[in-house]
Amino acid sequence: MTLRLNFLFCLITLLIQANPGVSHPNTTWLNTKGYGPDSPKYWILFKAKDQSVRPALSEMAITRRRAQNFPLDETDQPVSVDYLNQLKQEGVQPLNKSRWLNAVSARLTTSQYAQVAALPFVAGIQAIDPAIIITSIGNPDGSRSTSPHMAPVMTQIQASDFAQAGLTGRFVNIGVIDAGFFGADSANALKHVFAREGVKRVRDYVNDKKTHGDLFHTLETMSDFHGTEVLAAIAGSDPIENTQYGLATDATFYLARTDQGNREYRGEEDNWVAAMEWMDSLGVRLINTSLGYAKGMSNPKENYEPRQMDGHTSLISRAAQIAADKKGILIVVSAGNEGDDRSWRIISTPADAQGVLAIGATNARLWNRIGYSSIGPESLPYMKPNVSCFSLYGTSLSAPVITGFAACIMQANPKLTNKEVMAIIEKSSHLYPYGNNYVGYGVPQASRAISLLRNQPLPATARSVKASGKSFTLPVSTEESVVSVFHKKDAMHILQQEAMKVSNGKLALRRSTGEKQTTIDLKTEVIEVIWE
Is the pLDDT confidence value at 64 over 90? Predict the structure, then answer.
């Protein structure tokens, strides 16, 4: 298996072409803690905590929790210092600590594994294999992009409606967890963010010796552009080109680099969890993560399988669910780019967690699923992806668009909980309530979100009709000559999507084998055909 990194990212033209003093990519690597790529890494899970220790949170975070009615609990307390000291006595050096999971990550030899497993305070050990593939980071086709492609999505989601309402993400703190932010402070699309000191704190979990400036000025691999692109898709605006790339132009940002891109296989989900907890400790309640983890473990016994994308098997999905249920954090996650991979096809973790907002990608014209966008597993009892929007170059660029959408909602009503914001985004989407496991509830619409925020009734844009037999002629009112049709085996799961021509104001539907429902997507109206 290979990681698709043979590309330039789609906003690279927004960056400076040369930067004196920039470090260049290496061809070999050794992480900052002195271990090579073959040293196995594990989660060590503990049995208990010291209840007398104060929560490891800032006053801002505690205030936010109280305001949102999320009580402090033992998941806010740090892991036991006594346990850490006993591990060190065994010659084990913890890498990352997780108060949510009550665990630490560490590299263990075979003998250390046995010694640690026998310790009375250890509840279990779980592998973090170095062969986890990051699924959302690259262009799906491996191509090189040379011009920005984010602007069209602003029309699709009705960005101008938020602008007219004065919603720009002001006063909203956004965390971005990604693979690098090279050149962010010199990108034309982000100059307004840095000019107002909108990036408050940064942290590099791959190289903890890097300073604030190093994260922006040291290029280790081409994937270090990725977080810059994501940031631009959340908050980008280029006055020279008179182009808006993201919705949250006035938001405040906290950035974390958790993945290193100059080696083929990475297993750094412990960095991801650590970054989540760091942002939570600072009071951040909206986080974008355009990284997804799926297949690829070298030991078959420890390999993720599609059936394990169930929302609770992976520890990062468990952490994401804790963030949603106990910390009040809205996590916006890219669904993944494996839709064309017949051996996988489905979303990656942590997009499988019920509490996160998983974002797929649509085509520009028809708003149905673009081929690479990962689909929701049929085994899940809930909808995944939740919503979608246009992105030519991966779900890692559709997720930040919806992060900006969420920031506008949170600015409009800061008292909303993460789940209430999530519900507004879903209900504002153009297919609601007739979603599916290809595009979720479809494309969020700013005009509908604003109506929901104002407690105004939504226009009647959804209806159902009953049909029988093998075919059905449906009158439709649309200016579109071709529309999307989703053939479904039940209310949620797709048999196939189809582009159908409208002839004389009618659609000639033919029922497929096993088809129970059919969704007709007219963009401004959705019709659900229920076959009897």
Answer: no
Residues 233-243, mean pLDDT to the nearest whole number: 89
Distance CA 29, CA 36 (A): 8
Give the H/E segment covering residue 228. Answer: helix 226-235
- The pTM of the full predicted model, rounded to 2 decimals, is 0.88
Catalytic residue among 178, 238, 270, 521: 178
Active site residue 493: no
Q: Which residues contact 236 (CB under 8 A, 6 or more apart)?
A: 11, 14, 150, 187, 189, 190, 244, 245, 246, 249
Catalytic one among 396, 398, 451, 484? Answer: 396
d(CA 69, CA 419): 13
Quick check: 336 and 292 in contact, CB under 8 A?
A: yes
Q: How far apart are CA 25 and CA 9, in angstroms?
A: 16
Domains of the chain from N-terminus onward = 12-16+132-453 (3.40.50.200), 41-128 (3.30.70), 462-531 (2.60.40)
Q: Is 212 a catalytic residue?
A: no
- Active-site residue 38, yes or no? no
- Residue 91: how many other CB atoms lie within 10 Å: 12
